[in-house]
Amino acid sequence: MSDRARYYLEKCVPELQDLERKKLFDKKEITMIMRRWTDFEHRITSRGSKPMDYLNYAQYEKNLEKLRKLRVKRFRSIADSKPSISDYSASKRIFFIFERGVRKFPKSMELWAAYLKYAKKNGSIKVVYKVYTKLLQLQPRNVNVWLSAAKYEYESNRNVKSARNLFKRCLRFNGDEMLPWLEFIKFEMNYLSKLLVRRKLFSLLTERQQVQDLKENENENETGKDGLAQGDDVITFTADNEITDELNNLPDMNASTLGSIEDNPVLRGDLILTLYDVCVASFTKRSEDKFDKTWQISKKVMELVDRFEGLDRSYLCSHIARELMDKYPYNEQVVLLDLTLPLRYVGMEDEEFVSTLQNSVRLYQSWTARSKADDEVKKEVKREYLTLLRERYLTKAEGDSKELLGMLVKKLE
Known about the structure:
Elements: H1 3-21, H2 27-45, H3 51-74, H4 89-104, H5 109-121, H6 125-138, H7 143-156, H8 160-174, H9 178-202, H10 207-218, H11 242-248, H12 265-268, H13 270-285, H14 290-306, H15 313-327, H16 332-340, H17 353-370, H18 375-394, H19 399-412
């Protein structure tokens, strides 16, 4: 037996003695536990150890702790119920196993994931922060880790400021990947949507009420600490690109959400649109096919917008469509998006459907008459526009509505 393994096992002797003293395990079981521990220690301290050895060791400890808790309940009438070393040593030992594992295999995401999962389940916030900090320092190019950390801060700790800063730091290292941009935009949509719903639900009209609500729901403390993303605790970086400057200039929604949608553009989604603009500029700068990349981003962002009914979706999509039309006024996909935008969030059962459809048709007719696009582009736009009217509305209409829509389609043909 190695000196290291012997040292770790000797430290566990008091716990085994405590389990026997409390009559939770008999001598034979204690001997079996020590034998298993010895076997695991040999495995993980050997040269041929693998991440799975640490995972199996930790799993054995979890199962043993479950058994101990069951026996505490079953034998509570005869066992000593006073708190002692065996009541809290298991979690410390499991954390120690994971710590040794990630130290030896820092690239094993399976080990890191199991470590994080156990820390979260155990409610050990300090350990969770420690694990995320170390992992982000070791793997700053791992987007999933950044997203996981931001999600934990937002959903578990309700710390919006820290989550936002984690997204910003992620983009400084991974600005060339689409996923973090979309997740950041989705995060801002989610937060703004919840904020607007709360204000509507609780009728938070005065500025004082809104400030108090922000403090209660964003976990902002008086010390000014910023959770997982505080200072340089997570990771340091060199600001050597324009993305960093753009991200630093983003408005802080926490301080800009007072007022109402009518008098505050941030509440309408200007921060989201700023993120979209920076994202498009970042990708098109290094892309040969600028339209393809711009269209890809725009389409995905609009699909995200579709999912948040509480936002001013028409305002957000209008900005995207306007930006596309300014850059690519003769592209059939962009033109079709612009012409059908009024119909995007209106269904046939809505009162404003008829007037909205008329507005869309007028836009189409005006574009056809005034546009300098090629005849081929106009033919393609006409075909796609009529196909949309048939498939989305005419096939589902009934009675007089179906007759009127049929006449409209024939007229446009």
